[in-house]
Amino acid sequence: MLRSYIAFDLETTGLRPDQNEIIEIGALKVRDGRVQDRFMEFACPKEEISPVITNLTGITNDMVSGARCSKDVVRDFLDFCEEDILIGHNVIFDYSFVKVCALSQGLTFEREGIDTLKIARKVHKDMESKSLGSLCNYYHIDNQAAHRAYHDALATAKLYQTLAHYFEEKEPKLFQPVTLNYKQKKETAATPKQIGFLKRLIRNNGVTLEWDPETITKSEASRIIDDILNGGRK
């Protein structure tokens, strides 16, 4: 069992690191089996936090309104991580958001990690759900505020220790850190059809928006179109 590592978790505005944003980072630094330091901070996104995300996490737009931007928070988080091995539940999801934000600032974030979800899928094939909540219930791990980043990170650390206690001797390879690989997808330009549709939406809905048809990407155009259709831009 690792005695030194970073367990971390994020809350985000959605599921895609190329389109959505980090709204909270929570992490604990373990040294020689003890929590040495903690990282807990909100990040203020450019987009509104949707009611779906608020219902899931309890994080509202008011709660993040005074927070720093994600780029500033991520820079400090990279310093906090040093060169440690990362532990997370579906760790590549959280890693991908941090890496995309780091790359956007010309920073690197290359790490090894251990995924408690991957371990659970192997050793608990009979369990219908391998979510962090389900596994915490199974092992009687108390998570005082599920879907808040620091508390989920702490629960993940406890889950890792529990799984290692029961299964590392039988399945040592599962508990070996592996290189975390996430390649950021290249942005493609918006299609002429998207640009034409967006222009009509802006004109017909009286939307005030600064944008450049020459440089707007496909993902940016899709997000703006969705916002206008859902009444999110005026």
UniProtKB/TrEMBL annotation:
Question: Which superkingdom heads the taxonomic lineage of this protein's source?
Answer: Bacteria
Q: What is this protein called?
A: DNA polymerase-3 subunit alpha (Gram-positive type)
Question: What's a GO cellular component annotated to this UniProt protein?
Answer: cytosol
Q: Which Gene3D superfamilies is this protein grouped with?
A: Ribonuclease H-like superfamily/Ribonuclease H (3.30.420.10)
| Exonuclease domain location | 4-169
Q: Cite a single GO BP annotation.
A: DNA replication proofreading
What Pfam families does the database record attribute to this sequence? RNase_T
Q: Which GO terms describe its molecular function?
A: 3'-5' exonuclease activity; DNA binding; DNA-directed DNA polymerase activity
SMART domains given for it?
A: EXOIII
The record's keywords, sorted A to Z, are: Exonuclease, Hydrolase, Nuclease
